[in-house]
Amino acid sequence: MHLNLSLAILNVALLWLLTTPHEFAHAWVATRLGDDTPRLQGRLTLNPLAHVDWLGTTILPALTSLFGGWLIGWGKPVQTNPAKLRWGLNGLALVAIAGPASNVVFAVILAVVARIAAAAAPALSEFAVRGVYLSLYLAIFNMLPVPPLDGSKLLLAARIPPKIYNEIARAGFMLMIVAVSFSDLGRWMSMWSDQAGSYILALIR
């Protein structure tokens, strides 16, 4: 079996880079909506160490990349208190969307970096291009409606009964990992991120 060590290192490095603005965006929007929980827990920062989940940001993505599977990864979830948020559960939905939205914005920034560095620093340009696709992939992945991913917060905003939400949380995430690894779900997410990434890079160039 061929182990893709270089891909594993690249993906983990990019996940560390991309997780920081993603989780910071959650913390920033929650703070703007009146919830001081992220600030009190030290999450209103661009320090990567505050946002890294060692399983989700390092170990699991390294293993899935190493063995050639679909990349799976996430950062340390930002905790929010809907009771403190302006608009309650609707505010929670805004906080949830902020993370994936930041991935889209960061993909555009990386596309600009790739364009600027193309002639002077080809290696950096290639790294940035890879980051464009991965950032968009993370945006799509995090919108899946499975706890603790961001998309699950939209279920709460839609007033799904807590009993149903808790049942999804109990087994849904493990089933989602299996689905991404052994079904077409991972391929679809990769295809969508590739199409969106190619479109952004074409616009920048």
Question: Explain this structure to me?
Answer:
- This protein has 205 residues and is mainly α.
- It has one domain.
- Helix content is 70%, strand content 0%.
- The chain has eight helices and no strands.
- The protein has helices at 5-32, 37-40, 54-66, 88-117, 122-142, 151-157, 162-182, 185-204.
- Helix 4 crosses helix 8 (185-204) and helix 5 (122-142) packs across helix 8.
- The longest helix is centred in the middle third of the chain and has 30 residues, at 88-117.
- It is globular, with a radius of gyration of 17 Å.
- The model has no long low-confidence stretch (mean pLDDT 90).
H-E order? HHHHHHHH
| Overall helicity | over 70%
Class inferred from helices and paired strands:
mainly alpha
The profile of the biggest β sheet is: none
Rg calc: 17 Å
Number of strands: 0
State the end-to-end CA separation. Answer: 38 Å
> Please, how many helices?
8
What percentage of amino acids are in beta strands?
A: under 5%
- What's the shape? globular
- Please, how many domains? 1
Q: Return residue spans where pLDDT drops below 50 for at least 5 consecutive residues.
A: none
Q: Could you tell me the mean pLDDT?
A: 90
